[in-house]
Amino acid sequence: MSTLNTNTLHNLKHKRPIIYSATAFLLILSFVLSYALIPGVVSKSAADKPDSGVDILKGIWISYIDFEPAGLYNKDKEEFTDNADSLFKDLSKKGFNTVYFHVRPFNDSIYPDSSFKWCTSLSDKKLKYDALDILIKASHKYNIRFHAWINPYRITTGKIFNPCKKSSTNRIIRGVKEIITRYDVDGIHFDDYFYPSKKKGNQFYKVSIKKRKQNVNKMVKKVYKTIKDYDSSIEFGISPAGNREYAESIGCDIKTWVNNTGYVDYLIPQVYWSDNYHRNGKKITLFTDTLDDWTSINQGNVPLYTGLALYKSGLKDASDRDWKKYRNNIAKHIEISENYSMDGFVMFSYASLLTKEGKKEFRACKNAMK
Length: 370
Description:
Elements: H1 6-13, H2 22-31, H3 44-47, E1 57-62, H4 77-94, E2 98-104, E3 108-109, E4 117-118, H5 131-141, E5 145-150, E6 154-156, E7 159-160, H6 166-182, E8 187-190, H7 209-230, E9 235-238, H8 244-249, H9 254-259, E10 266-267, E11 277-279, E12 282-284, H10 286-297, E13 306-308, H11 322-325, H12 329-339, E14 344-347, H13 356-363
Helix pairs in contact: 4-5, 6-7
């Protein structure tokens, strides 16, 4: 399997604490006169960062629907802190090195003093402590990178802010700035919610695909620049729908993102099917075919991580039969991803690690998680 590209590794390693001995310090000083490092001193932002000396990204999404199963819903500060510590300790033990945590699911936020309303998925009433700060510190304590997951346009399920309006983009930028300037995050993450589908009657269904892409691209490019202007080591990535044709129909300009600078640091296509998919009476190797499609268009060496459907463990689906038939689907999908030189994988989502069928699927991934 390929490793993360050079720029990404550079950005990750930039965050590692560096403490030089006196000898090393003198050597560095003699060769690099224009740049001095004081022995034993670490920048505030770097001090608590996880060790990023890893090749393969092994991630998990923690969605707003996972807050309660994770023991984070409606807790006082002491219990929340204990449960957050247990959560990340367990994820580290399982082999995960990156978390994508829902910070702004629905035009809201899980952190205090925000310009957005309180996220009632975390607690019924606004907390008197900073949950996000606790989560990030617990994540870094166990050497797990923390990406703040935002739904940029979504107001409610099926309703979004108008992507063509500058006010919508400005609202997104304001939220991103709140996070990157106040919290020690390793990345900002968007998922696949941009425009609704083109189905007649949906909000903005008359907007053309071309116009959708133009509007989303303006926003994505501005978010990327905002992040990099503040701290070039903070990553920005998106997790589009695995069906590329559908992803493009809702505004994702995939080819532009992977083949040009200034848009994203990575993509996580949601490849949520097995290779025993049936359509019109024919079997389709849909997982492999989808990976083939995504890797074939990536000429810009943007890291691609496979989004894996752990939530489908044990699911009975007449079209996608392997989920019910086998309990090693995720392990097989990781192996196929390796064959396509994907740069890692991310599982959806945390709560599925706690179910009977999800545990069986995950146990089969033992070698991949080492």
